[in-house]
Amino acid sequence: MASSSKPQIPIIFTLVAFLLILSSSTTPVSSHPGRRLQANQTLRPHQELKKLKRVKSYLRQINKPALKTIQSPDGDMIDCVLSHLQPAFDHPKLKGQKPLEPPERPKGRASNESISETLQAWTEAGESCPEGTIPIRRTTEKDVLRASSARRFGRKIKRGVRRDTMSSDHEHAVAFVNGDQYYGAKASINVWAPRVTDQYEFSLSQLWVISGSFGNDLNTIEAGWQVSPELYGDNYPRFFTYWTTDAYQATGCYNLLCSGFVQINNKIAIGAAISPRSSYKNRQFDIGIMVWKDPKHGHWWLEFGSGLLVGYWPSFLFSHLQSHASMIQFGGEIVNSRSMGYHTSTQMGSGHFAEEGFGKASYFRNLQVVDWDNSLIPLNNLHLLADHPNCYDIRAGKNNAWGNYFYYGGPGKNSRCP
Question: Active-site positions?
């Protein structure tokens, strides 16, 4: 976790609840639009029992036996799971394997970067996971039951990459480069706790490593922080990852909620809350994120902070990304569900527009990409896109202290964003 200065410039179903449902055949179900039963439908007890059985089965699959469990002050349970028992090794192509040794890091990574102590709430009491284990945020019945189904839990419902200006419930303020072959990306991302006004919306800030067309073959690797009440049950900004190889249809997931990403680090829990966070006109904090392709084995590695190697996405997970990325994207994304009939008041970044600058607007700094020679290089031909600029916008710059950077975000609903 880095402190930055101004640049030069559950719902657990009990027997009682079941009996209440059983006593009435006309109990209406209130939920999010799109997840709501029709008014003349009822919630049938046997359907609810089937759903609960599916949830319990899923939890047995995803929650692995723990050598140690840590109670986080924010309510999370962090399980210390033997590294070779993590969800990744449920994958047929990884069964029986062990995590790989660290790869060669990209050249040009600042030699004076110190490995800073990155704080997550679960570590604040001095607790840690033993060597040979990895920390995994335990998934609960409450978590899964917030989703539309156990099958959809941990997955993005729709695409999360902006490629046009057509209206969508996903809105973005992003900077991107394309037109070349890219082997990774790096940035420092300002951390805030934006307000998310609907359970089924989110606000995130991340980098995307992208390849393929924007049809059903889209490959992405994503990492950053997000506030997602549906996924986590609260409004804390959390370190997260995502991947897909078919445009968010059937492959991929958040964090470690499916077999795929292989974690090697015992100090960082993917999906756990980040602390401290930035505040308006006060101290600013950011996290370093780097994703790059190991030139020797071709896997995509993730670094968090100033040197904590988190783990990797095996290259066989992907089609186009087995070779290289064709686009790198940085920035913010929100979901605007219009659940009240007008634009959401969900904030992006700090909730303030880019023009307010340091200490007020959220930023990305030191944007870089990794080239064919495994070297970090500055960006050329950076493009900016805010698809709803009256709601969320973006402004870029460059200087010696921050390299390529930009401010972005906004409040959502306002007089210019009805």
Answer: 222, 333
